[in-house]
Amino acid sequence: MRFVDEYRDPDLARALSAQIAALTEPGRHYKVMEVCGGHTHAIYRYGVHDLLPDNIELVHGPGCPVCVIPMGRVDDGIAIAEQPGVILTCFGDMMRVPGGRGSFLEANARGADIRMVYSPLDALRIARENPDRQVVFSAIGFETTAPSTALTVLRAEQEGVENFSVMCSHVTIIPAIKAILDSPDLRLDAFIGPGHVSTVIGCRPYEFIAREHGKPVVCAGFEPLDVLQSVHMIMRQLAESRCEVENQYGRVVRWDGNPLALKALSQVFELRPFFEWRGLGSIPQSALRFTAGYARFDAEQRFELPGVQVADPKACQCGEVLKGVLKPWECKVFGTACTPETPIGTCMVSSEGACAAYYNYGQYSRQRLDLQVL
Amino acid sequence: MCLAIPGQIAELLPEAGGQLAMVDVVGVKRKVNIGLLEGDLAPGDWVLIHVGFAMSKVDEREAAEALAVLEMMGQAFDEELQAVAESDPA
Ligand code: SF4
């Protein structure tokens, strides 16, 4: 690893951390939301928050696709899988997400055939190999994975694979950020923009946050120094009373995103009028569904779905965690009834969920915080 | 699923209308779909891969950084690599 050291250079980190501290106004409390679960993981893993002055608080956002899947959607997937002749396929993270009738893993124990795949293309291959079965791909993810689903559907069309369909739970990041900006619970000063999602959508879609809400956005990479540097860029903007969209991750993210990915997305998908998010409720125009031209690949039209809303368990406070209102350890069941082995809520399932990241790495900083509270 | 795995293009394949390439992914040769970066790639190039699709072209330094980020994920990375090894996006 001859390149990486410079992204973990402790001297550089200390220097940046001192510069950040110098930019803060004494007596002011800053709240910066990192939208993406990948950043949440990096922050806890490396203790990035420990390098920030006490008056800069990093707040975890909704950018973990597994975390925002509502229980009713898991039940819909199980309802499809339980129909005769169906093979349901999904990403590994989905297997343990709890629904109202248990998880996919538990459905398998009752006789369903739900298989983990790495890529939607694997689901398409399974469809080719099993022409007498209906093969459904349970698609989840933000704009990072949605173009892959779109391209897979285009392949299925070209090859005429008729026993393949997709249950589309793809969500889009901008409406989730809007919902958070409109939520009265939370006063945020700035956003660390997601890295991989921005590879697809570019930086332009965030401009309304600066223009209409007066808050800086910096798209960031995933190394600890990337995160520190983006906090530095944010603090500079705030100190100079600027608010703009800046790109710290220009090494990968282009201002206009990936045009081929955006084209595939708009060919196959359109916005749904409403989609139910776990914890955030129903958000208008926040998820994708098939365009009329590709409706025959829509599992929701091919199969009958219960489509019922299932209330989250009483003890579950994932919604508050996803909005950044509660810290993971403030949830009453955190680490006791809810652990990565036996998750009650979704934020404990995926390694990018705030609760799982905090459970795995956060103990030290929690002690530190407890001391401050005392 | 949200992880970006770096890989180096070994060979562009004629199958699937030129949408596939053989890619060296952390020491293992895998087929990867390059349909989202079409026309832009040659053997030796580095890409970041999401769920079997090359999503962005990067330089060698960025590929090394992406790998370092993955290594910090620990078990999640091991599981992802295992999934990649079992995948066959032909
Ligand atoms: S501890 Fe469990 S139930 Fe509580 S917010 Fe986290 S994931 Fe949800």
SSE sequence of chain A, one letter per element: HEHEHEHEHEHEHEHHEHEHEEEEHHHH
The share of residues in extended strands of chain B comes to: 25-35%
- For the record, the count of structural domains of chain B works out to 1
Determine the number of helices of chain B (DSSP H or I, runs of at least 4 residues). 3
Largest interface: A-B, 50 and 43 residues
CATH topology of chain B: SH3 type barrels
How many E strands of chain B? Answer: 5
* Sheet with the most strands: spatial strand order of chain B: 3-2-1-4-5
Q: Your description of this structure?
A:
The complex is a heterodimer of chains A (374) and B (90). By secondary structure, chain A is α/β, with parallel strands linked by helices. Helix content of chain A is 38%, strand content 17%. Chain A has helices at residues 10-23, 37-46, 71-81, 104-109, 120-129, 146-159, 173-182, 196-201, 207-213, 224-239, 259-268, 299-302, 318-322, 354-361, 363-373, and strands at residues 30-36, 56-63, 86-90, 114-116, 134-141, 164-170, 190-193, 217-219, 245-247, 269-271, 274-277, 281-284, 288-290. In chain A, helix 10 links the parallel strand 8 and strand 9 (245-247). In chain A, helix 2 (37-46) runs parallel beside helix 14. The N and C termini of chain A lie far apart (43 Å). The model of chain A is unreliable at 366-374 (pLDDT under 50). With 90 residues, chain B is of the alpha+beta class. Chain B has a single domain, classed as SH3 type barrels. Helices cover 32% and strands 34% of the residues of chain B. Chain B is built from three helices and five strands, in the order E-H-E-E-E-E-H-H. At the A-B interface, helix 2, helix 5, helix 6, helix 8 and helix 11 of A face strand 5, helix 2 and helix 3 of B. Bound molecules: iron/sulfur cluster. Iron/sulfur cluster (SF4) is lined by residues 316-318, 321, 328, 331, 333-334, 338, 344-345, 347-348, 355 of chain A.
